[in-house]
Specification:
alpha/beta, about 20% strand, globular, 4-stranded mixed sheet
Length: about 210
Amino acid sequence: MEQFVNSTRLLAQQWAVLPQYYHPPLYWRVYPGWALPFAEHRGCADHLPWRSCRLSPAFADDAAGLLRTSMRSRGVTVFLEPKAQYNSAESTAMIPEDFEVPFGKARIRREGADATIVTYGNTLHLSLNVAERIQRELGKSIEVIDLRSLSPWDEETVYASIKKTSKALIVHEDRLFGGFGAELAASIAKNAFRDLDAPVYRVGAPSHP
């Protein structure tokens, strides 16, 4: 992973000098998730150079749409495929012909008014199940946002949801210490502070082997 990051930095320099001539698409498919290869390298993908995107779909239609957008885009795309969802019935979806999903656009998977869960990848389905259980047992409605794209990520959708619910929970498989959720929490605390009624909480992997 480190070699890939260093090599793409050299490509980024060439794109910056000759953008009108040199901008080939380069996308890399990796398989993050618990007990699966590359799980330990998910965080490294957040430090790729200029004109690069990091994607993590959780449904078949988003996977197809983001992959098609990646192949038609310019620059580097790291496509994080939750391998645990390959044979999952929860991830099935109809895929329209020539379907594309734009980078940096989240999707609200469940409407709610009492709290916002921001998540992506494998933990999206867990979050949806938890939200349904909370609704049944506690009578609270939880809004669940599927980021789909990690860099760029959809700040507008997340902040609008927090303005409505006043609470934010970030759920991911990444480590709590230094993980991608820490960046989300920092951005929310800075840009949506006045809309929060409670601290931003995170759920993630322990910061040890």
